[in-house]
Amino acid sequence: MSGDRRGAAGSGPSAPGDEADEGRAAALARVRAVLQAAGVGEEEFQAALAGDVVDLLVADRLLLPTRRRFTAQEVAEATGMAVDVLARFWRALGFPDFGPEERLFGEQDVEAVLTLQELVDLGVTDLASAVGLTRVVGVAMSRVAEAELAATATPLGIAGGDSVEAAARFVEVADRSLPAVARLLEFVWRRHLQAAVRRAMAQRGRQPSGSPELVVGFADMVGFTRLSQQLDEATLATVVNRFETLAHETITALGGRLVKMIGDEAMFVAERPGAGVAVAVRLAELYADDELLSDVRVGLALGPVLAQDGDYFGPVVNLASRIAQLAYPGTVLAADEVRHALVAEQAARDLPAAVQAVLAEVEATPLRPRMVRDVGRVQLWNLHRRGQEAAPSDRRAGRRLDRLAGVLRDLEGLRGLGEQVLAARRPEGDPGAPWSSGSPGR
Known about the structure:
Layout: H1 2-11, H2 16-37, H3 42-50, H4 54-63, H5 72-79, H6 83-92, H7 107-121, H8 127-152, H9 163-202, E1 213-221, H10 224-230, H11 233-253, E2 257-262, E3 265-270, H12 273-289, E4 296-304, E5 306-308, E6 311-313, H13 315-326, E7 332-335, H14 336-348, H15 353-359, E8 362-366, E9 370-372, E10 376-378, E11 380-385, H16 391-425
Parallel strand pairs: 4-7
Antiparallel strand pairs: 1-3, 1-4, 2-3, 5-6, 7-11, 8-11, 9-10
Helix pairs in contact: 2-9, 4-9, 6-8, 11-12, 12-15, 12-16
């Protein structure tokens, strides 16, 4: 009887339910075809369909086409890499430890291990450095994956719903997006590697110790902990995104490099003292002018640093961080070395135009030497626009006073309106009488 109803419905206009069923059937056919092409058998497909995990099966086969077939011992025998070394690389990539009998690895994993082993055997890198490089790659790719998922969860169909429909959407989008993102990652990596190699070659012979001499800066957002406790999750995410976006765009635009974000703090470096100073001054100004964010305090130091795994370490880094903590909100403090290097560099007049435009208005005001924890007495300089030593704080305070004045004016107007309403509701001839609940003029 149900078959008769379907036939009758088919002879007339399609019902909404029939259209939904037809759409799901078409999606199921597309997904089955893609999985069959990826080597998934009908039995495995039906099991995923029965368990409502077709989307998981599609994600596994499209993102990692090879099956998990090998144990760690079998990978070690195929590649010549000891199991304990394989475990070090696996953890460095950011994955939990594996069991001795766990079949966790596929052909792509074996190829990756062979590549790492080849780099070590060729002497391109030693084992410790290879593990360190792998750790950096693992952390970076984990962040890229999380960011990509956050940006594409809805179009990829990951937000929820029927697993077949989600799988179909994933197939449609991933088929084009995955190769595109892979090409983009390779392009960005090559560009950054080229820039890093050029920087290293430019320093050849200048630093006998091998440690690059850089301006190191820290920009610390004031009151972020207290602010984060008062905001809901969505608003806090907006604040954090705004803080990171403003830091990244300002630092890179003026020739610096954002090293990392540490909660409410941004660490950056610059090869040119002028670029480092321009970045610091602009950060202080832009955060002071931003209605969403609080002020930042910025500290700068200059000297040789230890570069390791994409990060920087050493006394100069520690000094810059300590100086930032000494700065008032909205101000920039710099160590003596930064100021002297800036004077010498400005005389050369070979800085980029964007940096020169900022530095043309920057002055350095000496402060009394300060005791810096774990460092000692340090001569500091306040870097600011001419005539604006306290401008960031004053400018923000002025805007807040303007807004407060506007609120007070609005309240005053409401109070006047309220008095008019009350006067209209009082009995005639008795200004001291309480207002009536009746209509005006009663």
